[in-house]
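Q: I'm writing up a methods section and want to include an example of the input and output format. Could you take the sequence below and give the corresponding predicted structure tokens, formatted cleanly so I can copy it straight into the document?
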Amino acid sequence: MASSRSKESKIDISQDVVIQWAAMMEEWTDPLLGNGEWWQVVLLALIGACIGSFLNVAIYRIPRGMSVNNPPRSFCPTCNAAIPWYLNLPIISWIMLRGKSACCHKPISPRYLLIECACFLLFGGISIYFDYESLLARLLICLWSAGLLCLLIMDWEFMVVHSRISGICTACGLLASVLAPTLVGSGTLSSWEGLLWGCAGVVCGYVLFRLTALVGRLLFGRHNMRFSEPTHWELRQIGDNLDIELVVGNHSLRWGMIFAERRGALVLEDATVEQVPGASCRVRFTDSQMIIGDSSYDLEKYDTLCGTCRAVSSQGSSMGSGDAWIAMAIGSLCGWQGVFFSLVVGSYIGLIFALIMRIRRGDPMPFGPSLILAAFLWLFTGPQLVSWFLNFLG
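A: Here is the clean output for your methods example:
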């Protein structure tokens, strides 16, 4: 009995610590800037534009293995010239330069402007929509949203999900769930209960998407193609050397989807390799090597590999393992309800993208962007949409 009472007292103390911490942070921030002030919206929107500028740096450097702070100054991606601070102002500089770099006068991708404008509007919108929450809570929601926006662009362009960025989003979401527990669960919750709901959302997101990836790999991850005559195949680097693509006839397979997990496999039957003269044989690939018989060849040594084959078999994943990291971040702030909503609605968004872009069955397509867009939809109007849909069915 004594041990159980001591455990209960420890739990009570930990709950009091969380509640006192949340109240203290609100007490410090609210008198500083107040709630519902118009200039607070402008302030967060301007911060959003600056963070959007930083996201552009992260999106360019991280997939290429570069440090976000080395070199410390931004540089032109075409001629590598350093960009002075007065030409690196968010939104303003791109408009003043009319979308061209000042050093070499080459076009600057509109993506830079779009991301900065998106963060500007996103931070301002969060400040307006959640004006009943404390400033710190809104700032954490903004950072969570900025991290997901970064993951969205990186996954869309490079089909890469950075686990560290997802971890930062998850941490911001859990802290926000303490200060704004109504976002992560239904009804009136305490700060301690909000944290528990956020942790439950993290676990639910990771487990649900790992199970979905497993089922998808078993049902749709295997590809078998046979040809009546030797067919040309080619292995080449794509996306600024960030991924590899196998092209066999009119079919294409992405390395990132096949070898997203350790169980990935790719085999060419009755194949020839122009770079390795010899008779037709069985060629097996790993994520970094080509194996012919007892010999192995590092893929990094070849700019391209090609030959002919009569059959291709692969075992990959229909959903990248990085989607589970994204689902964790979503669950930390949106709870398990938001995770399920993002999975269902994100599937429909992905289908719309596939139809618009005319993506053929079997062609690779990142699911992360659709998932994140659905999470943003849940953040602002998700519960209302679900309630409306249930009333419509009823």
